[in-house]
Design brief:
The chain has 229 residues and is an all-alpha fold. The protein is 79% helix and 0% strand.
């Protein structure tokens, strides 16, 4: 096996790793916030909100992420240049990039899965704890903020860790919409050098290392906030 190409391509590999991590951080952070709203809409929202939240989760969980990504990039993305004045706006440099559509599709997909995880966790919080908070004079919002949501997140932590790892493994799909993530860099190296296994091995090591880091980070958090039912 040959790895002499690393000297030439390591800056590109670092840029690709940055793109991968950026996609992961953006989609997980924004997706989790959206998932909280979707979960509460399903658990305690009205009929309309509950139906919309369930419809959202069903659609995004029931269709492949690749199709969602392509519908956004090749569908909506192809229509954006037709919007009057958009090309001249400050948003165009962002909207014309595949990274934007990848981040949006990954965020929505992650939110759909995470909403179901949080919904189950919210329902598993003992009602007695919520009633105790209300008995102490807490408002509904305070009970949610100080008891219900933190308790649900603690319960769901192991599952959330697994979902973050799965989200990491989904990031190579961004390669299909011109995002130069780590897998796209490996593909370019293969085209330039005709080496197949060596670039993939380097990329594999990165994903394994990042997965170990994510698992370790969640393990530390779980140890600090033990789950009690």
């Amino acid at each position: 096996m040959k790895f002499d190409w690393l000297a030439k391509y390591w800056p590109l590999l670092i840029d690709g790793a940055f793109q991968t991590v950026a996609l992961l951080v953006i989609s997980v952070s924004l997706g989790f916030l959206l998932a909280i709203g979707l979960a509460f809409a399903q658990v305690s929202g009205g009929c309309v909100l509950r139906s919309l939240a369930r419809w959202f989760s069903t659609v995004f969980r029931g269709t492949p992420l690749l199709i969602q990504l392509w519908l956004l990039y090749y569908g909506i993305g192809s229509l954006l240049p037709m919007v009057p004045g958009l090309r001249q706006s400050f948003l165009w440099p962002l909207l014309r990039e595949g990274f934007f559509f990848a981040a949006v599709s990954f965020t929505l997909n992650y939110a759909a899965y995470e909403a179901e995880v949080l919904r189950g966790a919210l329902l598993s919080v003992p009602k007695g704890e919520l009633e105790a908070g209300r008995a102490l004079g807490m408002s509904r919002l305070t009970v949610v903020r100080r008891i219900w949501l933190p308790r649900a997140i603690r319960i769901a932590l192991p599952t959330i860790a697994g979902e973050v790892v799965l989200q990491l493994k989904a990031t190579p799909l961004a390669f299909t919409v011109t995002v130069m993530d780590l897998y796209a860099v490996a593909y370019k190296i293969r085209q330039d050098t005709l080496l197949v296994y060596e670039p993939l091995l380097v990329v594999t090591l990165f994903y394994v290392a990042l997965t170990a880091l994510i698992t370790r980070a969640f393990g530390v958090v779980e140890a600090q906030v033990p789950i009690r039912r």
